[in-house]
Specification:
It is built from six helices and eight strands. It is α+β, with helices and mostly antiparallel strands. The chain has an eight-stranded mixed β-sheet with strand order 1-2-3-4-5-6-8-7, sandwiched between helices. Strand 7 and strand 8 form a beta hairpin. Helix 1 crosses helix 3. The longest helix has 18 residues. The termini are far apart. The relative contact order is 0.14. The mean pLDDT is 91. GO terms for molecular function: acyltransferase activity, transferring groups other than amino-acyl groups.
């Protein structure tokens, strides 16, 4: 069988979702702790939401060449989702990582985040990438700041405060440093 991985890290593998993944996606989001720090455009609350979101991920991959991808451990176990989504308010591309709770605090998200940022700027033409971090989610904030994101603004989404952080493409970052 051919390896269809989009991205591999030392412990995880990202590949495109298929129609058969709705159950895993729904099960991931059934844990309210998973949805706690997500904005409404990222949260999945019902099986129907999971099925629709899965279609959106597959269609996004087909149209843009990137989307949210299925994250699996190297043994094949489902770990969550990670990749990119288009923030509906500004049409900017946002980094998003959503893993099963038993993987939290073990460096999996950091491992993915750095690899995803590198992949994004090597495979797209975008000048920057954003990430939303819920106010009070200090571990997530430290993680994205640790890979080069910086605060852009605080915003309110569905009544909840989020910090919008961004990282510039390497070429734009070099230009900004040279112009400063």
């Amino acid at each position: 069988m051919a390896d269809n991985a989009i991205l591999k890290t030392p412990r995880l593998r990202l590949s495109t979702f298929s129609d058969a993944d709705a159950g895993d996606l729904y099960a991931l989001h059934c844990d309210e702790g998973v949805n706690r720090f997500l904005a409404s455009h990222e949260a999945i609350r019902t099986r129907e939401d999971a099925e629709q979101r899965l279609l959106d991920y597959i269609e996004g991959q087909d149209h843009r060449g990137f989307s949210q991808w299925k994250a699996t451990l190297h043994d094949g176990g489902f770990a969550g989702r990670a990749g990119f989504s288009v923030y509906p308010e500004t049409s900017e591309v946002a980094l998003s990582i959503c893993l099963k709770p038993h993987l939290w605090g073990k460096g999996y998200a950091s491992e993915l985040a750095g690899a995803l940022v590198t992949w994004f700027f090597e495979n797209t033409y975008f000048t920057h990438l954003i990430a939303f971090v819920a106010a009070g989610n200090d571990p997530a904030r430290r993680m994205v700041e640790g890979i080069g994101f910086s605060q852009r603004q605080r915003t309110v989404i569905d009544g909840n405060a989020f910090d919008c952080l961004q990282v510039l493409s390497p070429a734009l970052a070099r230009y900004a440093r040279a112009s400063a």
